[in-house]
Amino acid sequence: MLNGFHSIHHRLFMLFLFCMSGILLIVSLLYYNRTTVQIHEKISDLSQKNVAQTAGLFSLLYKGYDSLSKSLSNNFEMIRLLNEPTDEPAVAYINEQTITNIIGAIFYSRDDLIGIHVISDKGKIYNYGNYLNVMDPNYKTEEWYRQIQASSGKMVWLGVYKHSLIDQVEDSPVFAFGRQIYDLNEHKPIGIVLYETNPQPVLDALDNLKIGEHSQVYLMSPDGQFVSSSTDPAPDLKTLPSLQNSSNVVVKQENGRLIVASKLSFSGWWLLSITPNRDLNVELVEMKRYLLIVISILILVSTLIASIVSKTISSPLKKLIREMKQVEIGNFRGMVNVSSYQEINILVASFNRMVMRIEELIERVKLSSVSEKNAELHALQSQVNPHFLYNTLDMIYWMLDEEGNEQLGELVLSLSSMFRYSSQWEDGVEVTLREELEQIGHYLKIISIRLEGRVQIVMDIDERFLTIRIPKMTVQPVIENAVKHGLESLGRQGILKLYTREEGSSLKIIVEDNGVGMDEEQLNRMLDSLYGQSPKESGKNGIGLQNLHRRLQHMFGESYGLQIQSFPGEGTQVAIVLPIPTEGEIHS
Questions:
Q1: Tag placement on the chain: N or C end, fewer CB within 10 Å?
Q2: Residues 352-388: tens digit of each pLDDT
C-alpha cells in the first residue's frame, strides 16, 4: 500500500485532486462570503425602505386622526355647551343630547371608530359607541388620562390596547388617542376627548415592517415605553441600542439580529423592526445547501479528471519502466508504443532509439568477436609445424645459393619471412608501420617474380609515420586484393602505388592500382559487404576486407576503417584511415 502511494500515478492523482478541490473550495468560500455580505446589504436597504414606507403610512394615519380629534376640540357649539352653566334639568338634558348628537355625527362619519368619550373638567362624561357603556370610575388615576391632561392641546397617541381604556363593557382591541378641549375665549382647558378606533390599520402598518416570519415590530414612545406593538411581546429596552442621539434612521446588526429604527417626523416616537439572523439567512441557507451539492458534484468530477490526467501521464511511464526491465534482463527486441504528451513521446522515442543502438552495438561486437576468432583460427591453421617449415625453407635457400640461383633463393627467403611473420598471430597484436612494410616488401618481391615484371611498385611513405603502431596484417590484405582482382588479369603494364597522406588528425595509407577497376554495381556490392549489409566475403588465404574494416572500427571508432573508390578500366583506390597518435605516442 505504501509503495502504491509513492507511485507517480497516485502522487499525480492526489496533487491534481488537492489542487482542483482546493481552488474549488476557496472560490466557493469567497463567493459565499461575498454573497452573504451582498444579501445582508440588500436586506438592510430593503428594511430602510420598509421603515420609510411605514413611516409614511403612520404619517397619513396621524394626519387623519389629528383631523378627527380637531373636529371635536374645535367645535365651538360643543365648547359653548360644555361651558354653559345651568340649573334647569330640561336645559341640561337638551345640552347633553346636543353634545351627544355632535359626537354621534362624528362617530358615524368614520367606520373605524369604536367609541368617542368626552370628559369635562366638571366630571361629566359624554359617550358614543357601545349602548351599554359602563365607565371606569377611577379613570382620573390612569396614566392615559394624565398624558392627555399634560398634552397642552396636542394630540396624544396612547397606543393599542386589548380593550377600552374607560368603557368596562368594550373588550375588543382598540387604538386610543386623545386631545384636550380648550375654551378659546378664556384660553383654558375645559375637558378632554378620548378616541378609540379599530387598531387594524395601525397593526397592518406595523406588520409592513416585518422582513421575516420571526420579525418583531414595535412603536416606541419618546420616553422608552412601548405604547404600541403588534401581538409581539415587548422587548427588553436594555438589549436595544440607544436611540436618543441617533439620526432619523438607524440600522444595526448585533447579537444575532438586525435592528432597524425610524423616527416619526410628526412626533418623537420610533418605529422598531427586530429580525433574527435565521430569517435573514433563509436565502443563505438555501444557497449553502445548493453550494454543497454543486461542490460535491464538482469534487467527484475533479476526482475523475485527476484520475484520467494522472493515468495518461503515468501509463506511458509504466510501459517504459516495464520495457526497461526487459532490457535489464537482456531482451532488446521490444519497442514502446505510446501516444501521450510531447515530452513523454520524446522520452519514449529516445529510449527506443537507445535500445536499437545498444542492440546494434551488441551485434557488431558479436560479429567483431567472431571475425577475430576466425582470423585467429586461420592463423593457427597456417602454423602447422612452423619450425619444420622454416628449417626446410632455409635449407632450400642455402641449396639454391650453393647452386648460384639467387633469384629463386630470394623467392624462398621472402616466402620464409612471410610465413614467419604471419604465423606469429595473437589477438589484438600491434606492429609498427615499418615492420608491416617490410612484410609487404617480401610479398611484393614474390608477386614481381610471379608476374614476371608486369607490375611496377611505387612506394612513398612519410618517414614520420614509420614508427606508429597499427594492427598486424593491416596493409597486406588490401595489397593482396589489389593484385588478385585488379592487376593479375590486366593485359598491360600494371602500377601498384603505396603512399601515405595526412588529413587533419587522420592518417591515410593508400593502396592504388591501375587495374581493371569495378563498375557501379560491383562497387556497391563491395561497399555493402564492407559495411555489413550483405554476407561477409573474405579471401581464401587472407583476413578479408570486411574483417579488416570491422577490426579497425572496433579498435579506433566508427570514423576509421576502409574507404574505396573504383572506376571501370581505370583502377581502384583503397584508403586505410587511421588516427594519428600524439607526438609522444609516435616515438614510444
A1: N
A2: 888 888 888 888 888 877 777 776 666 555 555 565 5
Residue 109 and residue 251 in one domain? yes
Instruction: Kindly state whether residues 302 and 160 are assigned to the same domain.
Output: no
In terms of Cα–Cα distance, which of 121, 125, 122 is closest to 99? 125
pLDDT digit string, tens, across residues 319-352? 777 878 877 777 777 777 777 777 777 888 888 8
All three cell numbers of 7, joined, read 507511485
What is the pTM assigned to this prediction? 0.47
Residue 335: inside a domain, yes or no? no
Query: Locate cell 376640540: which residue?
Result: 73
Residue ranges in 190-270 assigned as alpha helix (H): 200-207
pLDDT in tens, 403-446: 666 667 667 667 767 777 766 656 557 888 898 888 888 888 88
Max mean pLDDT among 242-246, 308-312, 508-512 falls in 508-512
- Asked if residue 287 belongs to a domain, the reply is no
Tell me if 177 sits within 8 A of 136, measured CB to CB: no
Q: How many domains does the chain have?
A: 3
- Are 200 and 257 within one domain? yes
Q: Which residues contact 230 (CB under 8 A, 6 or more apart)?
A: 203, 206, 207, 216, 217
Domain that holds residue 160: 44-280
Flag whether 356 is in a domain. Answer: no
In a domain, 353, yes or no: no
